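Reviewers of the previous submission asked for a worked example of the structure-prediction workflow described in the proposal, so we include one complete record here. The input consisted solely of the amino acid sequence. No template or homolog information was supplied to the procedure at any stage.
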Amino acid sequence: MRKLLNTLYITNPDAYISREGEQIAIRLDGSKIFQIPIHNVEGIVSFGYCGASPALLGLCAERGVTVTFLTEHGKYLASLSGPISGNILLRKEQYRIADDSKRRIVICNNFITAKILNSRAVLMRAVRDNENLRNKTNFRIVIDKLARQAGKAQNACNEDELRGIEGDAAKLYFGNFNSLILSQKDGFYFNGRSRRPPLDNLNALLSFTYVLLMHEVKSAIETVGLDPAAGFLHKDRPGRHSLALDMMEELRPYMADRFVLSLVNRKQISSADFIKKENGAILMGDETRKKLLTEWQKRKKNDIKHPYTKEKISLGLLPYLQAQLMARFIRGDIDGYPPFIWR
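From that input alone, the workflow returned the following structure tokens.
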């Protein structure tokens, strides 16, 4: 199993990252403020428009450290990776599956079934752990409906039918999401999913966290030799990492949604550092972004027992293990792709 390493997040747009031997150095106004050995890092995520030296980018490419550039507020710009090291036979079989609707739908069904079941588990955990949770009867009704939607997803015949089932399940899940916010309700509320731009503080947190998860999943896919752009459910589009988007689906409720709810309910962040733009868009301020990144790194170190392999792993390695299982399935080592289902 791969060792869990650090992801280096650069949040100051005025910072400059460079190479000093085998070290990554960060400078601000010409002065070095931080450095870390390259072998301790699995990825670099830069927010804003800070500079990076060609020497550093070359070192990262050589060592398999993906460098991802985002805008200051988390919109994806570009990634830099080293030479493609994927097994050509593995990737060719991946492309064959992607072009075969009968083989493709079986994998897609597993993605969405797991997503629905994990969404259901979030609601079940809330009912179990919170005595003062309102509308518990309604929650139980929704939990039962989600179980039925998961059964439908497992047996969907095509992508259009599956997307309809997924949409209905998302309405059920997010329709009760606001009740999961147990503190700071004046500053954090949820009236529906809003993107590009997010229109409230909670949606801003979700969108930002989904970007972080996307980086983790894409890096994991590249590590095992698969092509992150050749997906099965999300349609091909230039610049889109369709397989990473596919494999994110099952992980969103457990890794992202629960994380955001925890930050709010434990009052680890507040609404004071959010910024509302003239067009209604909500942006996170620097302090909130830094706190979120710190807690994200901490949570990745938590141990879980994988329901399929029965291994005890760090949560941060979950995307990598799922990518490994996908590669094993595509190679024919196992009969089907086992998605992550939170028990």
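The first helix runs from residue 54 to 63. We consider this example representative of the routine output the project will generate in years two and three.
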